[in-house]
Amino acid sequence: MSSPKTDVFKNTPTDHKIHDLIKNRWSPRKFADTPVSDTDLQSLFEAGRWAASSSNLQPWNIVWGKKGSTAYDRIMKVLVEFNQGWAKNAPVLMLGVFDKKTPDGKDNFHALHDLGQFAANMSIQAQSMGIALHQMAGVKHEEALKEFKFPDTYHVATAIAAGYYGGEMSDLPEDLKGEEKKERQRKKQDEFIFNGDYVERAEVDQS
């Protein structure tokens, strides 16, 4: 397995100490030309496989394809136009899909969370291998459901572009080159962490 290249890391201004695999992970829109092997993909999927899920229902499903394959082209077709403009740089494309129903036909309100757990596990595993993942909401969800013949109880939640960190800035459309160079930012903890009742941010600022 390859190690992440230090020259592609972004500055991550953390307020507290976190693991380097989390600190150095980010979502590029350009990727190295290096192919992602089947063995590497199986490691990513195995990491996802062992994610936590409500009642161990494991409602996640992953559709994937390598560049040059029919599956890749079919996934590309169901991305929104904006994402098609840069996702073509990725050696691998995936779709994250979940079953909205439990086996006994009840609504599974936790399924989207569980798919997120799968993707988070896969993301950290990928980072340990020098592989970047860029997750996308910009998918033609209903079209993708039909394209890949999932039942109506399923939902195509995300797409994921995957490949080794690297690539050239010239691979990107002009309007995205600046986005690639931006420093990473996150909300401060006191905007979303509550040791008790929820408090609106405006009230926090006044205290």
Automatic annotation (TrEMBL):
<dbReference type="InterPro" id="IPR029479">
    <property type="entry name" value="Nitroreductase"/>
</dbReference>
<feature type="domain" description="Nitroreductase">
    <location>
        <begin position="80"/>
        <end position="164"/>
    </location>
</feature>
<dbReference type="Pfam" id="PF00881">
    <property type="entry name" value="Nitroreductase"/>
</dbReference>
<protein>
    <submittedName>
        <fullName>Oxygen-insensitive NADPH nitroreductase</fullName>
    </submittedName>
</protein>
<keyword id="KW-0560">Oxidoreductase</keyword>
<feature type="domain" description="Nitroreductase">
    <location>
        <begin position="22"/>
        <end position="65"/>
    </location>
</feature>
<comment type="similarity">
    <text>Belongs to the nitroreductase family.</text>
</comment>
<dbReference type="GO" id="GO:0016491">
    <property type="term" value="F:oxidoreductase activity"/>
</dbReference>
<dbReference type="InterPro" id="IPR000415">
    <property type="entry name" value="Nitroreductase-like"/>
</dbReference>
